[in-house]
Amino acid sequence: MIRWLFKYMAVLMLLPPAPAALAQEAETLFRNVRVFDGQSPRLSAPTSVLVRGNRIAAIGANATAAPGATVVEGEGRTLMPGLIDAHWHAMFVRPTPEQMIFGDAGFGNIQAGAEATATLMRGFTTVRDVGGPVFGLKQAIDRGVVPGPRIWPSGAMITITSGHGDFRQTSELPRDGSRPLSRIEELGGAMVVDSPDLVRQRVREQLMLGASQIKLTAGGGVASPHSPLDVSTFTPEELKAAVEAADNWGTYVMVHAYTPVAVRRAIDSGVKVIEHAHLIDDATAKYMAEKGVWLSSQPITEADFGGMFPPGTDQYEKAHEVFTGTDNLFRLVKKYRLKMGFGTDVLFSEAMGRRQGAMLVGMSRWFTPAEVLRQATSVNGELLALSGKRSPYKGRLGVVEEGALADLLLVEGDPIANLQLIADADRNFRVIMKDGKIFKNSL
What we know:
Helix 8 runs parallel beside helix 9. The chain has 2 domains: 27-82 and 399-441, Urease, subunit C, domain 1 (Roll), CATH 2.30.40.10; 83-366, Metal-dependent hydrolases (TIM Barrel, Alpha-Beta Barrel). The longest helix is centred in the C-terminal third of the chain and has 23 residues, at 314-336. Helix content is 34%, strand content 19%. The strands form 4 sheets. Strands 1, 2, 3, 4, 5, 16, 17 and 18 form an 8-stranded mixed beta sheet that branches. A 5-stranded parallel beta sheet has the order 11-12-13-14-15. It has a 3-stranded parallel beta sheet with strand order 6-7-8. It is globular, with a radius of gyration of 23 Å. The chain is of the alpha/beta class.
């Protein structure tokens, strides 16, 4: 039977392909809009933008639609790229830590699907997921089962024993080859490794599952119970093993790190992107600039994160240490002109998730509105491109230009003149388009 099946398949492979149906790609014309292209500090003069299929086909006087096309009358509103969040945990926004580790996985998946739709409706058409079992959610979004953003998945964040992401109980120690995986490992949220060989194995597993880049936790973290902020976790040999395994697949490693020691060790091991870095000093920022290393950081302040942890807990103390470094970090970013993408790092709070746009607006404390918008559009688009051929979507994002992927927002007003418009997506994002499809039109 099996031999006959293989012969049948071989015959089918020799047959010429069936002629493809000649279907005209759908068109949408945005007429009389002013464009923020993701890069310029000012809006364009009134113009038109034609979307054909899932790409921007024309901008300007030659942007005319065929009969039957959808026409959106912009009436002078702003057309801009969809927003990109470069540090997002799609599976972990809504559950509590207890639900994440011990709850029903099916319920968690439904929560994540609902949050994905809410994320898209906030105008975030793309996220780089930096840790979590997100592959199934991404597949559901890509197949149209549930509306949501494009996802650049990392899969499980890779950590060490007692590192950020190790949520085991001390009663589960010691672990050797005879002990099973912990619950968070079974779910695919994190993987605990303690040697270069295990690092390589876990990195390769995430790539096999579809990761577009790899996440390691190179220093202590706030939320994890066993990792002080000042510790450095992976050895240089372990970091280099991860970098080599990712590089063999044409992609890169990013690391969670706050301190100068953790950041420098990662850079010296070949890591291309540092997440957070809120506690670095002047010399480390200068070193990052000299090495051309990317920073992906977030406005981690008391206003947004202050209520996450009860006063008196170890997590509360660690969070406040990070808060105190935020202002200095962004001053160093400006001083050394670091390549920095924008993210939010929302965890365990649906209410905080709803503030995703407001957190972007909060970056105006340190940067001009045009700089803030660039960080969440064209700059993040360049950051995503570091995944090379592992990028799950082919085409340029974060810009409004001919040939770019058609992820677009039609905004009620001028967000460069009034950045606060971004904080209220329900009212001010009149049209939300992703991949050439309109998911919201309130005109």
